[in-house]
Every structure is written in structure tokens, then in C-alpha cells.
Design the sequence.
């Protein structure tokens, strides 16, 4: 730990002590406790981090969407969480109402409330002001600490002058303190990468806060953004911290059950043949299995057997990075609040962190991102690179050799055989460092037994 | 996916269509293509809000922009896996003090910017993008959409399990996960009841999720909650922060619950009265 962090840790320890004291007092003061066998008081937040140039010291664990009951917000606050993230679109404003329902039990000056508006092409300064006024009404507060542009998927949106004019007006009126931007990448195959959007926002200079996807699978991209934020002293919040699947739905095509059966029945009513629906489901399941396999090593290492376990381990990983100021987690029930608050101030063992880093590095340079099209414009043959690589993964990673070869054989627009005589204009086109030509030649060899 | 455009004779009157189609309303012209979203792509449309829809069994969304006389609205028809899930999702997005109206299963017109509707397994959201709608315009639009959607127009029949006497109108909810913020309380229908002098209590019934039975649900609760009474019927209870005691009673094929009791004595009285009247 460097000197700066040691000093910060010292300050935080004292704050942590006060917070635990406050949380314990709050728990004692409850009309009833957290359930039978609640002799053990839940641990409170023990670490706060400076939220960039806002100057606010945010709890390292913060509360995002998920709570459907105001008592959960109140409970999180009593345990020391002081940063609450919401959005106009979460439950049609319902999540703002849930936070608003707890407002009378919280000291407004000690909490940081952020809400978000998706900026539409037809928005004007006035529509943004009107929508934001509704947000404040639902939140039962006269101001929010930050108003974010929500889920920006194109870099040019960050300069939207209607939004910035509205922010200027709101700041003058004391109805908002800071502007922020949230992003987790393009929607579908359109739009810009998260990195491009957020670096454009950093360069714009008018945003004090950023909410970004950060997990052990998108480390490199997110950390480039974090480095830029650190340089500009921008506050950072992590979301989407737990990638991958932990459980796969049970599936028997001869005897489908549950939602999958309902899907088949619904499609039959619409005139789609059962076989077609089964094929669609199996395609979806294949992508789920792919995600499941991607995180297997991480899960095995940490003994993760449930989604809840994955979320805890992944959040712990995020907290290792001091450039990420708070990790925003959805808290649906009291148990979940207890579990996530307990992560505050947690440290991974050096060996654990090294393993995850090694794993990520090894995996990153061999993993062709599903749905990514970044390199396509560089391929003179217009090969479906990520599709071919997915088939190779089916072959080698899932043991579905025949299926993979069959799919590969049915590719309509060429295959990796053309790479052998190509001068590789794709070199350097993969933002994740894949050697595209070498990978496609290998895949072709694998999928054709060439 | 096929889309059938309907031609209607009267303003705001439309012909009923199958679930595969998007309601087309006389006088309102589509200003773009109809978009379809599946569970895999819903986040592209509503981002962080998608999680709750998926939790409530979201199947498919069809959305389109419609324009009429300077007003542009976005209509989203969310098809859920059951009428109960559609109602649960609708109720999740409904403001607590909303004055609902009887269109389809239930509806809300929040002029000038939004209107909501639930009917059978469909939840419909109308958001005004440009201009404004008034109450009459919102009502006419929702009535037209409701007429176009298939299925029953009432609330899900399972709400009959809750006693009618003293029930606060419009207070019914269906909560898939963590009712009252308590993890164990899944698949609960609930309503508020006026207990006199302005006091309100919340009664609920736990519905066994698909693939489970009342027995398995009860056994799971019994392993975590305190047994308060065994005779004449078993009762379990748990203290919930800021709410007091929450208890459940097993009567045959139903699990009834009461929230907010001060002590075990009042809890037992409330549960006994509730289960006897249902």
C-alpha cells in the first residue's frame, strides 16, 4: 500500500468504526430485529472513497436498482450505504418512488442520490427539465446530487446541447449538483464501444461522474476509461460486475417444461413449427452455455455455485481497484443487503487476485467476443469472424464436434481457408488483441479436419 | 415476424387481432417500423429496467411510434408468460396512489404523458413523445388497444383467494420475489385491508411457483422461520425490519400471511381470522 492509500485507509477506518457504531445503534433501535436468530448484528460499511471532484466520500458499496420496498433502502442506509443510484426508467419510475419512500428516514445532506434520463433525439431542454422534475417528485427531494445521461451508446450523444443546457439551468436553480454519463457499450450491432463513448465524455469535460460496466472479463477496456477518469478527477461507479452464467436451465427437447415450454406453445399459436422453436431455444441455450463455460474457472476457484455467490466474488474483485470509487449493486432483499454491505473494505488475497488476473489475460487474448463486429470492415473477404470462432469453441470447448463442423460447412460467405493465402489486412483490427488470421486458420483446420 | 395492419371503420375502433399482431389504431399512423424485442434483446430497448420484466416472465415486446395531429406516442405491448405475471409487472410500475380505471383488466391514464394498461397476459405502455394527450384521448386509445388484445378482461382469478371484505380497492399486487423485502416470500398475491381508525394491514397468499407444491414451500419456510403455533393449524413467523412480525398459516392447500403484527398474540388472531374468512 502506498503512503496515500495508507492515509486514506486510516481515515476510512475511523469512519468505518463510526458507521458500524451507527448501524448497530440503528439495528438496536428497530421495532424488531432482522428475524429470529438475529442476535448477530449485521456489519456496516467500513470504507468510503472520494468520488472524484464531487468531493463526496461515497460508501465503497452502493445501492442500485432492485429494491422494491422502501424499507430495504432504509435498511441499507442504516448500515452505512450513502450512495443510491436510480433512473427514470427503472420500473417506470418505481425505483425512484422506492427511494423516495425512505427519504424521511435518511439525512439528505449525508447521502448521494443519482438518477438518470435516457436522452432521446426528440428531447429538448424543456422536456429534459420536465422529466427531471418528475424524478425529483418521485424521489421526494428538492435536488439530486447527479443527473446522468442514461445508457449512452453513441459518442456524439455526450455533447447533446439540450442536456447540457438543462444541467446548467438545474445547477443554477440548485436542483442538481453534477452531471454524469452511464454506458456499457453499443446496443446490438450499432453504436460505439463503451470506451469510445466514455472517453468522449471525459474529453467533453462537463461530466463529473461516470457509471460503467466493469468486471473481470472487460478489465482492459474499463481500466483505460478509469485511467482517463483518474486523470480528470472524475468520480466512477461500477455496474454489471458479475458476467456469466452459474446455472443452466434444464432442457429436454422431447419433454420441455416451464418457460421454455410456454415459448414453444406461444410460437405454435403464431404458426411457427415446433422444430423451429426448439432450434431457437437450443441456439439460445448454446450462448448461455458459452457464458457458463467462460466463467467456470473463476467459479471453481472461488467455490461459486450460485448467482449470488458469483455477484459477491465479482464485486470483491472490483473493489480491489482504488480507481473505481464505488460498486453499485442491486439489493432485492434484506439478506442481500447484509451480504453486499459485508463486502465493504474487503480485500482479495494476493494469490486470488493474481489468479484472476492471469486467467483474464490468458482468456482475453483467445476469446473472440460474441457479437463483436469490430474487425469485420478490415476483412477483404467479409468473413463472419466471431461466428467462425464460436463454432471453433463449440468444437474444442464443448465437445460438439459434429455440430460445429456441420455449422461451419453451411457458412454461406466463405470460410477460414481463404486466410491461408491472404496478406491479413485484419492484423491489429481486434481491440482485444486476437491474432485473427492465425485463429481463423486454426479454426478452419479444426472444423474441417484439414 | 408478420405484422398485420388493420383497417378500421371508426375513429379509435379497431378490429381484434391475434397475439402476433400489433394493434393499429384508426387515426394514428405508424411513424417508423414495428420493433420486436425478445428476452435476449430487451435490454437494448429498456436497459436496466429489463431485469424486472425478465423476472416477471417477459416473452416478447412489440413497440411502435404512432402519430396523430401533432401528437407522437410510443406504444409498447409486453407479452408476459401469464396473466398473473402481466398484472404483477403492471402493478410494479404503477404509482402507489394511482387512480386506476376499468379498461381491459385495469388501466391508468397519467395525462398528459403516459397511459398504462393490463389485459390478460399483456402489459401495454403508452408514452407520449411529442405533444400531449388528455384523459379522454388516453382513455380512447387504451380502450382501442384493449379491444384489440385477446384474452380475459378481468383481474387474474387467483385474487379471489384474498378476502373481499375490507379490501382497499386497487391495492392488489403480485410480487414474484422478495415480497416485503424478505427472500423467502416468493410468488405472493397481496392486498391492503382497512382495519379501522385509518389503520391498514397487509394480507397475502403464497402461491407455489411452478414445479413446487404447497408442501415444499411450507417446508422451506419452516426450516427458516420460527414455529409460533402448531394447533389447530401450523403458524410460522419472522421479524422483519421496520415492519414487525410477519406470519403465515397453513390451511389445506393455501398459505395465508399477515404483515405488520406487533406481537405473536395479535399475529395469531389476525391469521386465524384471515384464514377462516377465505
Sequence:
Amino acid at each position: 500500500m502506498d503512503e496515500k492509500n495508507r492515509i486514506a485507509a486510516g481515515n476510512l477506518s475511523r469512519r468505518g468504526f463510526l458507521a458500524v457504531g451507527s448501524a448497530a445503534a440503528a439495528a438496536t433501535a428497530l421495532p424488531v430485529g432482522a428475524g429470529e436468530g438475529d442476535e448477530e448484528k449485521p456489519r456496516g460499511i467500513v470504507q468510503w472513497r472520494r468520488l472524484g471532484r464531487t468531493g463526496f466520500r461515497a460508501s465503497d458499496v452502493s445501492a442500485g436498482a432492485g429494491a422494491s420496498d422502501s424499507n430495504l433502502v432504509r435498511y441499507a442506509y442504516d448500515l452505512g450505504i450513502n450512495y443510491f443510484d436510480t433512473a427514470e426508467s427503472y420500473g417506470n419510475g418505481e425505483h425512484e418512488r422506492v427511494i423516495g419512500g425512505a427519504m424521511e428516514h435518511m439525512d439528505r445532506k449525508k447521502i448521494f442520490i443519482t438518477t438518470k434520463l435516457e436522452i432521446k433525439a426528440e428531447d429538448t431542454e424543456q422536456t429534459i427539465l420536465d422529466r427531471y422534475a418528475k424524478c425529483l417528485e418521485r424521489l421526494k427531494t428538492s435536488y439530486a446530487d447527479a443527473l446522468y445521461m442514461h445508457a449512452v451508446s453513441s459518442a456524439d450523444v455526450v455533447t447533446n446541447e439540450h442536456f447540457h443546457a438543462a444541467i446548467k439551468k438545474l445547477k443554477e436553480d440548485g436542483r442538481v449538483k453534477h452531471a454524469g454519463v452511464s454506458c456499457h457499450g453499443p446496443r446490438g450491432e450499432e453504436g460505439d464501444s463503451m470506451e469510445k463513448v466514455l472517453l468522449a465524455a471525459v474529453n467533453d469535460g462537463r461530466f463529473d461522474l461516470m457509471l460503467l460496466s466493469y468486471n473481470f472479463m472487460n478489465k482492459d477496456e474499463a481500466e483505460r476509461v478509469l485511467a482517463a477518469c483518474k486523470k480528470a478527477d472524475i468520480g466512477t461507479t461500477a455496474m454489471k460486475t458479475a458476467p456469466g452464467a452459474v446455472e443452466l436451465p434444464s432442457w429436454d427437447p422431447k419433454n420441455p417444461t416451464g418457460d421454455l415450454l410456454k415459448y414453444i406453445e406461444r410460437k405454435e399459436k403464431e404458426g411457427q413449427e415446433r422444430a423451429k422453436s426448439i432450434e431457437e431455444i437450443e441456439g439460445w441455450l448454446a450462448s448461455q452455455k458459452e457464458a457458463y463455460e467462460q466463467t467456470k474457472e473463476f467459479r471453481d476457484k472461488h467455490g461459486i455455485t450460485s448467482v449470488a455467490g458469483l455477484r459477491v466474488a465479482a464485486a470483491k474483485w472490483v473493489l480491489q481497484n482504488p480507481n473505481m470509487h464505488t460498486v453499485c449493486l442491486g439489493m432485492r432483499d434484506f439478506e442481500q443487503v447484509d451480504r453486499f454491505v459485508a463486502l465493504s473494505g474487503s480485500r482479495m488475497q494476493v494469490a486470488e487476485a493474481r489468479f484472476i488476473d492471469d486467467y483474464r489475460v490468458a482468456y482475453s487474448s483467445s476469446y473472440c467476443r460474441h457479437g463483436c463486429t469490430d474487425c469485420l470492415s478490415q476483412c477483404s473477404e467479409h468473413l463472419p469472424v466471431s461466428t467462425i470462432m464460436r463454432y471453433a469453441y463449440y468444437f474444442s470447448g464443448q465437445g460438439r464436434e459434429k455440430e460445429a463442423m456441420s455449422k461451419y460447412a453451411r457458412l454461406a460467405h466463405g470460410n477460414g481457408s481463404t486466410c491461408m493465402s491472404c496478406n491479413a489486412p485484419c492484423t491489429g483490427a481486434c481491440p482485444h488483441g486476437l491474432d485473427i488470421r492465425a485463429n481463423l486458420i486454426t479454426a478452419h483446420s479444426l472444423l474441417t479436419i484439414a | 415476424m408478420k405484422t398485420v395492419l388493420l383497417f378500421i371503420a371508426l375513429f379509435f375502433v379497431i378490429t381484434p387481432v391475434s397475439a402476433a399482431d400489433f394493434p393499429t389504431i384508426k387515426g394514428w399512423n405508424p411513424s417508423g417500423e414495428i420493433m420486436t424485442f425478445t428476452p435476449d434483446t430487451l435490454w437494448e430497448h429498456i436497459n436496466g429496467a429489463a431485469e424486472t420484466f425478465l423476472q416477471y416472465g417477459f416473452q416478447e415486446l412489440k413497440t411502435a411510434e404512432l402519430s396523430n395531429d401533432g401528437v407522437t406516442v410510443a406504444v409498447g405491448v409486453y407479452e408476459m408468460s401469464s396473466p398473473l405475471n402481466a398484472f404483477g409487472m403492471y402493478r410494479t410500475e404503477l404509482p402507489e396512489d394511482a387512480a386506476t380505471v376499468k379498461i381491459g383488466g385495469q388501466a391508468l391514464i397519467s395525462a398528459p404523458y403516459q397511459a398504462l394498461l393490463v389485459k390478460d397476459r399483456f402489459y401495454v405502455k403508452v408514452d407520449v413523445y411529442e405533444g400531449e394527450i388528455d384523459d379522454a384521448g388516453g382513455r380512447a386509445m387504451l380502450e382501442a388497444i384493449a379491444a384489440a388484445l385477446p384474452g380475459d378482461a378481468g383481474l387474474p382469478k387467483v385474487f379471489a383467494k384474498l378476502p373481499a371484505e375490507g379490501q382497499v380497492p386497487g391495492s392488489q399486487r403480485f410480487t414474484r420475489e422478495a415480497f416485503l423485502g424478505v427472500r423467502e416470500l416468493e410468488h405472493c398475491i397481496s392486498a391492503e385491508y382497512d382495519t379501522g381508525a385509518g389503520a391498514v394491514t397487509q394480507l397475502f397468499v403464497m402461491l407455489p411457483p411452478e414445479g413446487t407444491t404447497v408442501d415444499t414451500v411450507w417446508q422451506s419456510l419452516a426450516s427458516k422461520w420460527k414455529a409460533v403455533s402448531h394447533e389447530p393449524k401450523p403458524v410460522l413467523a419472522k421479524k422483519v425490519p421496520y415492519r414487525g412480525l410477519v406470519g403465515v398459516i397453513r390451511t389445506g392447500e393455501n398459505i395465508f400471511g399477515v404483515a405488520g403484527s406487533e406481537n405473536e398474540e395479535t399475529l395469531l388472531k389476525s391469521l386465524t381470522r384471515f384464514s377462516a374468512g377465505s
DSSP finds 16 helices and ten strands in chain A. Chain A has three domains: 3-243+304-356, 247-294, 365-448. Residues 12 and 179 of chain A are 26 Å apart (CA to CA). Chain A has a mean pLDDT of 80.
